[in-house]
Amino acid sequence: MQFIDPHIHMISRTTDDYQRMAYAQCYAISEPAFWAGFDRGTASGFHDYFRSLTDTEPKRAAQFHIKHYCWLCINAKEAENVSLARDVIALIPEFLKKPNVLGVGEIGLNKNTPNEAIVFQEHLDLAAKTNELILIHTPHLEDKYKGTRMIIDMLQNDKRITPQRVCVDHVEEHTVKLALDGGFWCGMTLYPTTKCTPARAVDILERYGTDRIMVNSAGDWGKSDPLAVPELIQEMKRRGHSAEVIKKVVFDNPLEFWRQSNNWKE
Q1: Please, what are the domains in the chain?
Q2: Which of 8, 12, 160, 258 is the most exposed place for a label (fewest CB within 10 A)?
Q3: Among 165, 110, 158, residue whose Cα is nearest residue 134
Q4: What's this protein's family per the entry (predicted)?
Q5: Contact present, 248 and 89 (Cβ < 8 Å)
Q6: What's the pLDDT score for residue 184?
Q7: Strand ranges (DSSP E) for 80-122?
Q8: Calpha distance 185→207 (Å, rounded)
Q9: Confidence at residue 219, expressed as pLDDT on a 0 to 100 scale
Q10: CA-wise closest residue to 20 among 233, 251, 228
């Protein structure tokens, strides 16, 4: 079955991973801007990174007939430096018209600090002014519920933000209802230790349904699997879910969300 991985960091993956994903019938991916494994010290470093996301990675993916899309931001792990963050945010409009850019992301919180909240809201301001889709990063482990609540409060306090144009990612059992009840899209990440297993993700789908929800691998520098979405497909098949229901989760839903992007061409 063809699938889409709407959140994977291919800059951290080898070309062999593209090949394996192609063999598994990956149709398209989107790559949110994120941490590089270290804190970058200058806006020029981010400028080069944005060039990689909008030029180099699409070409690398195309070798394996995978469509590559991306999101732009300074991520929450580096948002504590507000001055640097503002310099990076000022660079983003230059890239928003690139054909593979879906919007602003993955923005959010890491440790739920005041500086992270400031930078998050300044990203929101940019997205609102440019009418961009928004992809949200929610914190890990013990910080997740508080951070998700803070994020949703900030989203709802900005009346310019349309919930249907926002995806709250990394939801788990205790945060998925917050996002769905707010009218947002949701992403479930199939990632060892700090996120969901395929079995847990299917449990959530069986409890909350398949509307406005998608799954991803968030494959990055850490221990992670770019074939996590096919693992979920197998788990759904094992439990007797129909091909139509599985396709909605792993293909139709991310595509429906992406189609709202300013740059989208069918």
Answers
A1: 3-258 (3.20.20.140)
A2: 160
A3: 165
A4: Belongs to the metallo-dependent hydrolases superfamily.
A5: no
A6: 98
A7: 101-108
A8: 16
A9: 95
A10: 228
The whole-angstrom separation of Cα 81 and Cα 87 is 10
**Alpha carbons 261 and 67: distance in angstroms, whole number:** 15
Instruction: Give the pLDDT score at 194.
Output: 83
Q: What's the pLDDT score for residue 255?
A: 98
Chain position carrying tokens 């945010």: 89
Give the global pTM: 0.97
Residue with tokens 């951070």: 147
187 SS3 class: strand
Q: What are the two backbone dihedrals, phi and then psi, of residue 173, each rounded to the nearest 5 degrees?
A: -55, -35
Q: Give phi and psi for 195, each to the nearest 5.
A: -135, -140
Structure tokens that stand for 220 in this block: 């990055």
Spatial separation of the C-alpha atoms in residues 155 and 162, rounded to whole Å: 9
Residue-level pLDDT at 37: 87
β-partners of residue 166 are 134
Q: What is the largest CA-CA distance in the chain?
A: 52
Q: Return the bridge partners of 69, or none.
A: 30
Average pLDDT per run of 10 along the chain, which is 266 residues long? 98 97 98 93 97 98 98 96 97 98 98 97 98 97 95 98 98 97 98 91 98 97 95 98 98 98 95
For 166, list phi and psi in degrees, rounded to 5: -130, 135
Residue 2 exposure: Cα atoms within 13 Å on the Cβ side: 11
Cβ atoms within 10 Å, residue 104? 26
Backbone angles phi, psi at 106, to 5 degrees: -90, 110
Check if the beta carbon of residue 17 is closer than 8 Å to that of residue 8. Answer: no
User: How many whole angstroms separate alpha carbon 79 and alpha carbon 71?
Assistant: 16
HSE toward the beta carbon, residue 7, CA cutoff 13 A: 27
